[in-house]
Write a structure and sequence with these properties.
Layout: H1 2-28, H2 48-77, H3 84-107, H4 112-115, H5 117-138, H6 152-177, H7 202-232, H8 236-261, H9 266-302
Helix pairs in contact: 1-2, 1-5, 1-9, 2-3, 3-5, 5-6, 5-9, 6-7, 6-9, 7-8, 8-9
């Protein structure tokens, strides 16, 4: 059964990545109404927008079935692992919530601020599925994560960064939904000829707010890399994991700049969405490690 769970978890994780990319593609191509004001049925003129929206719905429906099956089997066969039941519930709950928000966006007009929540909710569901996958693969004892003890100060940084990244993701989604991707035609400043100029309109405020938030996330991530290199270099999962996370946040900033330089190239925009999804997935695993470490510390104090 473990082999079945491993294969199913990989399929579920890859499917959730497709859901995230599909949602970003729908937003980038303005295909949200490709099926008309209908859900779950699709009625509309044959067009690229209809194909994109219908494909996204089909992939999301498939993901729902796969994730539900994975959650059920994981709960039944490896539910003795401390985090499995919680993650099983979270992955299904947020996937359903994501679908309901998507349906509401089609059936009833929604503000850009509400629509921007969609990607973040999908991201939480993806992270939960990814963590389930990693837990299943941990059964083979190929990770050394169970022996890890993370100090309290560093744990607080990880918790804070995770909450902050969700905020950064929200501002990025708001940029897309408010059609503000090219509100500032230069990078890193809105106007490189006058770096200290104040944004002139709402779109520029959204764009520059997202850039500033992303810059702070980058600095925070690199700061944690220095701390981890100093104290946890000999711990494979900790050091290599955060090294990968730091590389991803660098690529996230680079692709954010490339979106401006390429005038919102669709491939670059989708790559931007993929990278932040992978980064948040790795960060979520560090939250899991922090939770284990806190429990271990509590048990030691009690004894």
């Amino acid at each position: 059964m473990i082999k079945v769970l491993k294969r199913l978890s990989i399929v579920a994780t890859l499917t959730m990545i497709l859901v995230l990319l599909g949602g970003a593609l729908v937003t980038k191509t303005d295909s949200g109404m490709g099926c008309g004001a209908n859900w779950p049925v699709c009625e509309g003129e044959i067009s690229s927008e209809l194909f994109i929206e219908l494909s996204h719905r089909l992939v999301s429906g498939t993901a729902g079935i796969v994730v539900l099956l994975l959650s059920f089997l994981a709960w039944r066969h490896v539910g003795h692992i401390r985090e499995v039941k919680f993650l099983s519930f979270i992955s299904v709950f947020f996937l359903v919530l994501q679908g309901l928000i998507g349906a509401a966006a089609v059936l009833w007009p929604q503000s850009d601020f509400v629509l921007a929540m969609h990607f973040g909710i999908s991201l939480i569901s993806f992270a939960a599925v990814l963590l389930l996958t990693l837990l299943i693969f941990e059964i083979d004892k190929k990770f050394d994560a169970n022996s890890l003890v993370i100090d309290k100060g560093l744990r607080r940084h990880f918790y804070g960064l995770a909450a902050y990244i969700l905020g950064v993701v929200y501002t990025g989604a708001l940029v897309r939904h408010a059609n503000s991707s090219m509100a500032c035609g230069s990078w890193p400043f809105c106007d490189n000829t006058n770096p200290f100029s104040i944004p002139h309109n709402f779109g520029q405020w959204i764009q520059m707010g997202h850039r500033l938030a992303a810059a702070f996330a980058f600095i925070w991530t690199i700061y944690l890399l220095f701390r981890i290199t100093k104290s946890y270099r000999n711990h494979r999962v900790m050091y290599r994991g955060w090294l990968i996370a730091s590389s991803l946040i660098f690529l996230q900033v680079a692709t954010g700049a490339m979106i401006i330089f390429t005038y919102v190239n669709l491939f670059v925009a989708l790559l931007h969405a993929l990278i932040i999804s992978l980064f948040f997935g790795i960060l979520s695993y560090f939250l899991l490690l922090c939770s284990r470490s806190a429990k271990f510390e509590k048990v030691n104090k009690a004894s």
